[in-house]
Amino acid sequence: MYDSRFPFRARLFGSAVVLCALPFYLDAFWLRVGLFSMAAAIGAVGLGLLTGTAGQLSLGHAFFLAVGAYGYVWLAGESGPGLPPAAALVLAVLLAGAAGGLFSPVAGRVRGIYLGVATLALVFLGHHVLLTADSVTGGFNGRSVPPLTLGGFAFTADGPELVVLGVPFGAEERLWYLGLALLALTCWTATGVLRGRPGRALAALRDNETAAAVMGVHLARHRSAAFVLSSMYAGLAGVLLALVFRRVVPDYFALALSVDYLAMIVIGGLGSVGGAVAGAVLVTALPLLMTRYADRLPLVAAPGTADGPVGPTEAARYLYGAAIVLILLFAPDGLRGLARRARARAAPGRRRTAAPPPYPAPDPPARVKEHTP
């Protein structure tokens, strides 16, 4: 019997094989681009659940990334309790969720632009705390990130040399598989939430609050739960970012980072896990690629020079800002919708058949033969 899910599973398996093989062929730069994209995708999936599915506008995602990153650094570092890095990672994610839980009463009572302004205050408050709490955050200069170790295996190049199939595995190669595992876990859990009763309740809350309340959805509770879950995903993304950067500084977790995450989910497609991942890859990789190839691009200044009117980071923001406008005008469902329509056009042999009616069609009335005298 043919399984309709086989093509999707085959594509998923093929993508997993390719992603696992990339560290054997790519250099450190491309692996860092991939790692930054994975971390951004984890955070974008969480924001997609909150904004795309639950309909709650949040401009404070950078704050929860900072809680996860600095929470791991402090918990595993010498300035803090010095916990094992694996335990510090889990506690940092829970700490970000607790921060979201403390803010959840506000999220459960307000929505729309009012919630956006309230979360915007978190970014400025958090940035001020990061600059002033020197004993925890290191102030303006930040802190070095303790390397992660699991079962004696260190995700850093400072440990024992590791060679796999003739390829030396440094920090980027080792972190690559950690990032893949965390991203797969994120997508799997988020997809389960969306397909289960919580996802249907959040979608009903987003579409019509009155109808959702009539169906028995507790509005404030589900809004708060969505905010806590999104904060935990952001905390996990912050930990992975800290491990890749190897040093965290307050200026990275500013308002621009929150705006970038909103751009990711809008470009990728609201309410879609795959769309959030695609948007995160585009928004994260574009400035890095433009920085590397700035000397070959017109009107773009190479880093440290004044050869063009704009720098690569500003040029990348202009490009995906224009992409947001085009997406909103011509493809409101984002890259996910464009990919779905492209697959439909690429398979002309598939013809859509009308779904059978939910009840059998009535028999046509029998014709009565007229009696002629």
Fold and architecture overview:
This protein has a two-stranded antiparallel sheet. Strands 2-3 form a two-stranded antiparallel ribbon. A two-stranded antiparallel sheet has the order 4-5. The relative contact order is 0.15. It has helices spanning 6-21, 28-53, 61-76, 85-109, 113-132, 134-137, 171-195, 197-207, 209-214, 219-245, 255-268, 273-292, 312-330, 334-346, and strands at 143-144, 149-150, 153-154, 163-164, 167-168, 247-248. The protein contains 14 helices and six strands. Helices cover 65% and strands 3% of the residues. Residues 351-355 have low confidence and may be disordered. The radius of gyration is 25 Å and the shape is globular. The chain has a domain at 25-253. The protein has 373 residues and is mainly α. This is Branched-chain amino acid ABC transporter permease.
